[in-house]
């Protein structure tokens, strides 16, 4: 049973709508709606496809095979676990990329809801993130299977995954809210995000590793400093350390993603909350 | 307890709405260049509260802010200023099935939509079958919604909303969709919800439904809230201003509101509508057809907070109405003019002030009386008082139970000389009292010349109470009243009413005269009478015949014992008179008569008799006649002219006129009387009333 302040009371005051401190309470109150929306998106996404949910598995696997083929046959690597490493980067990158690009547009795409019904607006971008979470879960299972198939071992360090992922999840949630809010006002944001995601794919160690970058460019130089500003650089490297080296990732890798996640989350949530009561006017 | 509280709510939008681009107009570029976006107030200063269980209707033209207000109540958007507090769960039927996703099945959408309206899965499970049954969707519930017809879409949407069981329903134009059977079902459901004590906020253009459902109605006009005391009055206020924006102007000052809308003026005093729904209008008759000002193409050319100037181009006449309206010192001043582009053959012009039948009494100059009740048999307009060209003021008094309705006094200050004031009862269907200012356009003014014609300025006042209006008419009456002892005589256009100590002695047509010229009787009341002049105990007044070339000069004088009547005739050209008389028509209570030669009783009125019948036998000339009654003082009618002999007769009128008549008739023995131009004596007599009562 939930405490009474988390239950819906049916009290509404227009002046309370912009208060940031109410966010958590509102989200808990409408948790069922959030799950409904995630479920709705999933149903809608695969409804008229013959293979249905199978596509959620096929998509990341196909992408992995394409990239593995390119980097083992055309640009050969001497790493036997390359496919697993690639998939490890890919799965977590895809979560960020799809969350951001779809989440940015989510408010506009759901304008028929935003325009007509009162509910915490945060639910809409969060539902998109939650939707990508399902894909991530599928991708993660595939990752583990591939990892085992390539004779990798599953160690105790697997428990660090949730910690790392919590950082990424908060980062993605905060960014999605910020961008979706901006997108309501300036529809250019959606295109900017798309371009940034293409760039980000190469600026993140997905089909290469951080060490290769360190070996090629001066770690003290401005280019490297700029490169590591992408929190996904540290996060992907940390994921790989956990999975392949079976240890807690380097602490030095973690402080920047944590800081970025905190900034994005606080900024995203508060800006979103301040603006959300007026979204209906802009859509 | 108030379940919805709306305090000083205002909503301001940028004029350029919708998603913006960074670089275009209204985007970053303009912001950097310092261009300010224009703001537009969709709502301004809205304050009201709704109690639990109450039904509130919101009406208004398109773009008046209804939907914005409803969105604010629904929490979809928040107000720019002020605040809204809602103590209860709200289900907005803003757009039914808004959250429906076309690719999901009806079932999935029901859960989703109910969730959006704040319902839990368990609750939906419990009511799912009822929802489906109410919607009448049947087996289609498991088909995707995009296979539904639009009616089914709305039906399932309404069914969900109706069953989520919130405290407050916001309903926006939803009943317009769906077939008649479903609409009826919806109304029934809304009725049920009301009975369950749910609060309903209803936005609709269907004013019939609004007045049926809502106990209170708010009218929005250009984002401002207008309320009246009852839903009916609010709806009427709205109906008076339906039309193109360019042709409507609403202005107010003090207790008066005026709406000028498409050739019709509606006047409100203390927020109560004074004019009838038809308002005040002007009509012009041309080629036997009446052209109404409401047919014209109107435009408000000047707008002021307390007045306006409007122009209305008639579609079938080369004529433009030009109205100037203003509120001055608590009265409405309406100047009616016409601008003719070329000569217009106009036969008649009428300014019609339609007033509701709740006005039951009238004053007209110095006269006053009660309007006859309108009966279904009234198919045409009937004049209430015979028109008097000299009269320029008329009042309407509300029925005794209608304290809220203000007594109206209309004054015609400037006018065309032929524009007379007249009280008329309209036909039963129109159901109005009509104060008409106008009349036939005389030949000298016809056709209306090219140019601007000022027709009349009408001032409508509200300051006086009913008693003051009556006193005003009474004071005017004094001008034409003489008293001698207990007997008083009141001259009214060719007739004299006699009364004794406020007890009327005469009945219609009272004391009057009539002349037979060429076998046509010309009655005194039909003459064109000028206003009376009163000097001490004498009244002098003259009237001109409309048919024959003569004038009558009446002199009434209070003398000891009675009222002397002195009538002279002024021939304007030579003509012959066959006979003439002066008659005193008495009330039917008089039962006996006496002349110098004989006496007798008036016979009872015979229902089959319609003409006047002599009751005396002797036609010899006499000087007096007398009537007696058991309840009224006796009346003596004496001829004092010695120039010519008069026959004194007693007459019973027809059954319907119901009067006893004492008549002084002159029939020249030697053929018709030839009158040469100049003034001739006509009749001189005296009417006395005594306390003598029939034995």
For the sheet with most strands of chain A, the description reads: none
The biggest sheet of chain B amounts to: 11 strands, antiparallel
CA(first)-CA(last) distance of chain A: 37 Å
Tally of DSSP β-strands of chain A: 1
Strand percentage of chain A: under 5%
Number of helices of chain B: 9
* Contiguous runs where pLDDT drops below 50 for at least 5 residues of chain B: none
Q: What count of helical segments of chain A does DSSP give?
A: 13
Secondary structure blueprint with pairings:
The complex is a heterodimer of chains A (283) and B (695).
Chain A: E1 11-13, H1 23-29, H2 31-46, H3 54-74, H4 82-109, H5 111-114, H6 123-149, H7 160-185, H8 188-202, H9 210-216, H10 222-227, H11 231-245, H12 251-275, H13 279-282
Helix pairs in contact in A: 2-6, 3-4, 3-6, 4-6, 4-7, 4-8, 4-11, 7-8, 7-11, 7-12, 11-12
Chain B: E1 2-14, H1 28-32, E2 39-51, E3 55-60, H2 66-74, E4 81-87, E5 90-93, H3 106-116, H4 121-135, H5 150-163, E6 168-172, H6 180-195, E7 199-203, H7 207-213, E8 216-221, E9 224-226, H8 231-239, E10 248-253, E11 256-261, E12 265-269, E13 272-273, E14 280-286, E15 289-292, E16 297-304, E17 307-313, E18 319-328, E19 331-340, E20 348-356, E21 359-364, E22 367-370, E23 382-383, E24 393-398, E25 408-415, E26 420-425, E27 432-440, E28 451-461, H9 466-478, E29 481-484, E30 487-492, E31 495-500, E32 503-504, E33 506-517, E34 520-523, E35 528-529, E36 533-535, E37 538-544, E38 550-559, E39 562-571, E40 575-577, E41 579-586, E42 590-595, E43 599-601, E44 613-614, E45 621-622, E46 624-629, E47 634-639, E48 646-652, E49 660-666, E50 673-675, E51 678-690
């Amino acid at each position: 049973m939930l405490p009474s302040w988390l239950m819906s009371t049916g009290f509404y005051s227009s002046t309370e709508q912009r208060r940031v401190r109410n966010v958590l309470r509102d989200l808990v109150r409408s948790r069922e709606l959030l799950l409904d929306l995630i479920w709705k998106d999933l149903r809608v996404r695969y409804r008229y496809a013959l293979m249905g949910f199978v596509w959620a598995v096929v998509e990341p696997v196909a992408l992995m095979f394409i990239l593995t083929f390119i980097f083992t046959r055309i640009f050969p690597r001497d790493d036997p676990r390359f496919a697993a490493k690639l998939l490890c980067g890919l799965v977590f990158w895809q979560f960020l990329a799809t969350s951001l690009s779809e989440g940015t547009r989510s408010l506009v795409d759901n304008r028929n809801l935003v325009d007509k019904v009162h509910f915490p607006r945060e639910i809409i971008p969060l539902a998109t993130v939650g939707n990508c979470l399902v894909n991530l879960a599928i991708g993660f299972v595939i990752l583990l299977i591939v990892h085992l198939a390539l004779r990798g071992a599953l160690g105790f360090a697997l428990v660090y995954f949730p910690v790392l992922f919590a950082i990424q999840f908060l980062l993605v949630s905060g960014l999605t809210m910020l961008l979706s809010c901006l997108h309501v006002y300036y529809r250019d944001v959606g295109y900017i995000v798309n371009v940034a995601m293409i760039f980000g794919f190469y600026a993140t160690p997905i089909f290469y590793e951080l060490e290769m970058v360190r070996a090629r460019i001066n770690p003290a130089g401005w280019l490297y400093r700029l490169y590591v500003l992408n929190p996904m650089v540290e996060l992907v490297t940390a994921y790989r350390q956990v999975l392949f080296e079976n240890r807690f990732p380097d602490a030095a890798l973690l402080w920047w993603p944590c800081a970025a996640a905190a900034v994005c989350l606080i900024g995203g949530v508060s800006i979103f909350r301040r603006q959300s009561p007026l979204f209906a006017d802009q859509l | 307890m108030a379940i919805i509280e709306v305090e000083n709510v205002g909503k301001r939008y940028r004029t350029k709405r919708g998603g913006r681009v960074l670089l275009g107009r209204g985007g970053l570029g303009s912001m950097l260049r310092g261009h300010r976006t224009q703001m537009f107030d969709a709502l301004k200063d809205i304050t009201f509260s709704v109690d639990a269980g109450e039904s509130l209707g919101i009406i208004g033209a398109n773009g008046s802010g209804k939907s914005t207000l409803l969105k604010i109540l629904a929490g979809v958007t928040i107000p720019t200023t002020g605040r809204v507090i809602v103590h209860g769960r709200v289900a907005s039927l803003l757009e039914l099935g808004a959250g429906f996703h076309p690719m999901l099945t009806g079932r999935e959408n029901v859960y989703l939509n109910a969730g959006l309206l704040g319902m839990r899965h368990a609750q939906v499970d419990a009511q799912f079958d009822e929802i489906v049954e109410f919607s009448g969707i049947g087996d289609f519930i498991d088909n995707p919604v995009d296979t539904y017809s639009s009616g089914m879409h709305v039906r399932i949407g309404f069914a969900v909303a109706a069953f989520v069981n919130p405290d407050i329903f916001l309903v926006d134009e939803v009943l317009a969709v769906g077939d008649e059977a479903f609409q009826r079902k919806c109304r029934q459901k809304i009725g049920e919800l009301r009975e369950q004590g749910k609060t309903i906020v209803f936005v609709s253009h269907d004013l019939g439904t609004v007045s049926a459902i809502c106990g209170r109605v708010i009218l929005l006009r250009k984002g401002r809230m207008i309320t009246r005391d009852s839903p009916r009055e609010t709806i009427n206020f709205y109906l008076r201003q339906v039309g193109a924006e360019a042709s409507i102007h609403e202005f107010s000052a003090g207790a008066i509101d005026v709406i000028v809308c498409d050739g019709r003026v509606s006047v409100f005093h203390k927020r109560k509508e004074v004019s009838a729904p038809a308002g005040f209008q002007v009509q012009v008759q041309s080629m036997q057809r009446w052209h109404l000002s409401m047919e014209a193409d109107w435009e408000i050319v000047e707008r002021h907070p307390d007045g306006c100037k409007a122009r209305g181009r008639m579609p079938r006449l080369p004529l433009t109405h030009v109205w100037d309206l203003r509120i001055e010192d608590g009265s409405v001043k309406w100047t009616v003019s016409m601008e003719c582009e070329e000569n217009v053959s106009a036969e008649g012009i009428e300014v019609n002030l339609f007033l509701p039948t709740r006005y039951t009494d009238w004053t007209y100059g110095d006269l006053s009386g009660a309007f006859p009740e309108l009966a279904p048999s009234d198919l045409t307009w009937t004049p209430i008082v015979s028109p008097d060209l000299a009269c320029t003021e008329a009042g309407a008094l509300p029925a005794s139970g209608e304290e809220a309705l203000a007594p109206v006094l209309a004054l015609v200050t400037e006018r065309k000389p032929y524009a007379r004031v007249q009280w008329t009862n309209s036909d039963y269907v129109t159901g109005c009292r009509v104060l008409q200012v106008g009349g036939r356009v005389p030949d000298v003014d016809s056709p209306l010349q090219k140019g601007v014609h000022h027709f009349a300025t009408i001032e409508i006042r509200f300051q006086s109470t009913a008693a003051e209006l009556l006193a005003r008419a009474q004071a005017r009456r004094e001008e034409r009243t003489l008293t001698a002892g207990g007997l008083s005589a009141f001259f009214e256009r060719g007739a004299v009413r006699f009364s004794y100590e406020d007890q009327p002695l005469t009945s219609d047509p009272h004391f009057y005269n009539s002349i037979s010229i060429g076998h046509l009787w010309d009655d005194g009341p039909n003459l064109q009478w000028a206003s009376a002049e009163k000097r001490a105990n004498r009244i002098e007044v003259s009237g001109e015949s409309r048919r024959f070339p003569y004038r009558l000069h009446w002199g009434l004088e209070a003398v000891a014992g009675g009222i002397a009547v002195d009538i002279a005739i002024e021939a304007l050209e030579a003509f012959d008179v066959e006979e003439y008389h002066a008659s005193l028509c008495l009330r039917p209570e008089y039962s006996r008569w006496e002349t110098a030669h004989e006496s007798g009783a008036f016979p009872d009125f015979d229902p089959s008799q319609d003409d006047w019948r002599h009751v005396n036998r002797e036609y010899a000339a006499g000087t007096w006649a007398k009537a007696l009654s058991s309840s009224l003082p006796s009346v003596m009618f004496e001829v004092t002219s010695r120039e010519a002999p008069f026959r004194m007769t007693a007459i019973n009128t027809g059954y319907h006129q119901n009067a006893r008549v004492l008549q002084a008739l002159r029939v020249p023995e030697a053929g018709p009387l030839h009158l040469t131009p100049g003034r001739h004596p006509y009749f001189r007599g005296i009417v006395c009333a005594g306390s003598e009562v029939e034995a």
